[in-house]
């Protein structure tokens, strides 16, 4: 049993990205009898290095070590735990070039997109340790004090998706550790390499059992979610998988945070500066097609006022044509391939419906033969509201643009979905835009922007887009149990 921790950090914080990949259990690099290879989505060819396939025994060992480490890790002060996290941030930054190359290969990101994710990872790693949970004192008088405090849960598990495998993973790992929990990282089978290298770095910094990572097959997730030694599961991914995870966790009443799919609407009012809104950096077009649309919180439906619809659509189509598509080694590419064959086939079926459903493509639509899972950026011109491309989340580079004329009606249409992750309103009349945005049913709402996040601001979904929030003080509290703490003050006896 661990009774105390001392800061003992290896002087060499760099790791090799040209060596084998291992699971990390109790700060040991652990091999497995069975291994597998992932596919480079730019070439459809297997990547060079194999990754481990964890066994049930690996899961049991990792959970046991995490539970032992929790006893001492949870007793450290917030500042001491933050000190470990800051050293971890230093190590991530020291290895950023290797991570950029790895992300390009395994996540289907051209170099500039991979570099963007790593910049975000480093920013989160620097800022997240600054967060603290403030205790509350609802009662504090001469007779008694009532305190609401937040205590860590125990062993946490993060189940991470393939689209932003390092950013979304660190966004779970860091607050879990900061709050006093230990953490097991379960990467997507499509993108396990980066997580294993992060955990290898962590083994040089954190005490044994505090941060572990397990790569595996489709059995690994159910083993972790049903494990009686796990106190919380934080999952980012599809609605269907989120429901299965919640069902599995119910057997042991685990705490659960779910950040699920989105079908984010952007409502464009008739008074916007079209050129600025469509073409400027971090505006509508980019926020619809970044990472080939494979982000839960990017724009998926664009409602444009009928007075400016034709001009807006023409400008957006023109801007889309400037985006270069390319593979993992193309430094000029804006977006790359769809990350995996399963998702590629799903999105490809939408492209087939352009002809069968009679949709009109303002740009794109035709799939060309290629070595990878590439799909062209495509805008669908005013399809029916009940069409699949409007009602379902494509999670690919295909976006419908639709007309509206009545404010009440467009808000109803934007809200007419089971999902509620994010939504935005764009107008030069900011009070008007705020009035409209505040009627949208989503976990994040924006005015004249979209997909803005910060480590100290929580995000999450309403309706079937999720349960609970991540990031910020609210997300940090999600890694804790609230505890009511009463103190009765003993009054001095009066002198006789």
UniProtKB/TrEMBL annotation:
GO molecular function, one term: aldehyde dehydrogenase (NAD+) activity
Domain Aldehyde dehydrogenase positions: 39-483
Annotated Pfam families: Aldedh
EC number: 1.2.1.3
Keywords for the protein's UniProt record, in alphabetical order: Oxidoreductase
Alphabetized CDD domains for the sequence: ALDH_AldA-AAD23400 (cd07106)
Domain of life: Eukaryota
InterPro entries, alphabetized: Ald_DH/histidinol_DH, Ald_DH_C, Ald_DH_CS_GLU, Ald_DH_N, Aldehyde_DH_dom, LUC3-like
First-tier enzyme category under EC: oxidoreductase
Active site: 259
Catalysed transformations (reactions): an aldehyde + NAD(+) + H2O = a carboxylate + NADH + 2 H(+)
Entry's family note: Belongs to the aldehyde dehydrogenase family.
Name used for this protein in its record: aldehyde dehydrogenase (NAD(+))
Upper classification of the organism: Eukaryota, Fungi, Dikarya, Ascomycota, Pezizomycotina
């Amino acid at each position: 049993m661990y009774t105390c921790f001392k800061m003992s950090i290896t002087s060499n914080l760099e790791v090799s990205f040209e060596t084998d990949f291992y699971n990390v259990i109790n700060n040991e690099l652990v091999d497995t009898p069975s291994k597998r290879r992932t596919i480079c989505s730019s070439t459809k060819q297997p990547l060079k290095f194999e990754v481990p396939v964890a066994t049930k025994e690996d899961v049991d060992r990792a959970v046991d070590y995490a539970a032992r480490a929790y006893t001492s890790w949870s007793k450290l002060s917030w500042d001491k735990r933050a000190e470990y996290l800051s050293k971890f941030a230093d190590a991530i930054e020291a290895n950023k070039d290797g991570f950029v190359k790895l992300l390009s290969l395994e996540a289907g990101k051209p170099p500039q997109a991979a570099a963007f994710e790593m910049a975000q990872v480093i920013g989160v790693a620097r800022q997240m340790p600054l967060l603290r949970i403030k205790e509350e004192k609802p009662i504090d008088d001469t007779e008694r004090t009532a305190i609401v405090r937040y205590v860590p849960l125990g062993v946490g598990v993060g189940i991470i998706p393939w689209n932003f495998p390092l950013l979304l993973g660190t966004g779970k790992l860091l607050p879990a550790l900061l709050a006093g929990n230990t953490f097991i990282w379960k990467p997507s089978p499509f993108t396990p390499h980066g997580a294993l290298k992060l955990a290898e770095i962590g083994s040089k910094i954190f005490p044994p059992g505090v941060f572990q990572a397990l790569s595996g097959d489709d059995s690994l997730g159910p083993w972790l979610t049903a494990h009686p030694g796990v106190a919380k599961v934080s999952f980012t991914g599809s609605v269907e998988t989120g429901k299965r995870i919640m069902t599995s966790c119910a057997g042991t009443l685990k705490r659960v945070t779910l950040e699920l799919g989105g079908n984010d609407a952007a409502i464009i009012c008739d008074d916007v500066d079209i050129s600025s809104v469509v073409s400027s950096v971090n505006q509508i077009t980019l926020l619809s097609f970044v990472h080939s649309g494979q982000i839960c919180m990017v724009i998926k439906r664009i409602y444009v006022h009928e007075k400016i619809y034709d001009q807006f659509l023409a400008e957006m189509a023109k801007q889309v044509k400037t985006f270069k598509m390319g593979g993992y080694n193309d430094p000029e590419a804006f977006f790359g391939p769809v990350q995996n064959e399963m998702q590629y086939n799903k999105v490809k079926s939408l492209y087939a419906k352009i002809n069968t459903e009679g949709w009109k493509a303002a740009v794109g639509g035709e799939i060309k033969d290629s070595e990878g899972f590439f799909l062209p950026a495509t805008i669908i011109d005013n399809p029916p509201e009940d069409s699949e491309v409007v009602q379902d989340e494509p999670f690919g580079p295909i976006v419908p643009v639709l007309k509206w004329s009545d404010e009440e009606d467009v808000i109803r249409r934007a809200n007419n979905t089971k999902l509620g992750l994010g939504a935005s309103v764009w107008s030069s009349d900011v009070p008007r835009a705020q009035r409209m945005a505040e009627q949208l049913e989503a976990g994040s709402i924006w005015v004249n922007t979209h997909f803005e996040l910060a480590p100290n601001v929580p995000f999450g979904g309403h309706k079937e887009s999720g349960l609970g929030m991540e990031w910020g003080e609210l997300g940090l509290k999600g890694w804790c149990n609230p505890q009511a703490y009463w103190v009765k003050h003993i009054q001095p006896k009066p002198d006789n």
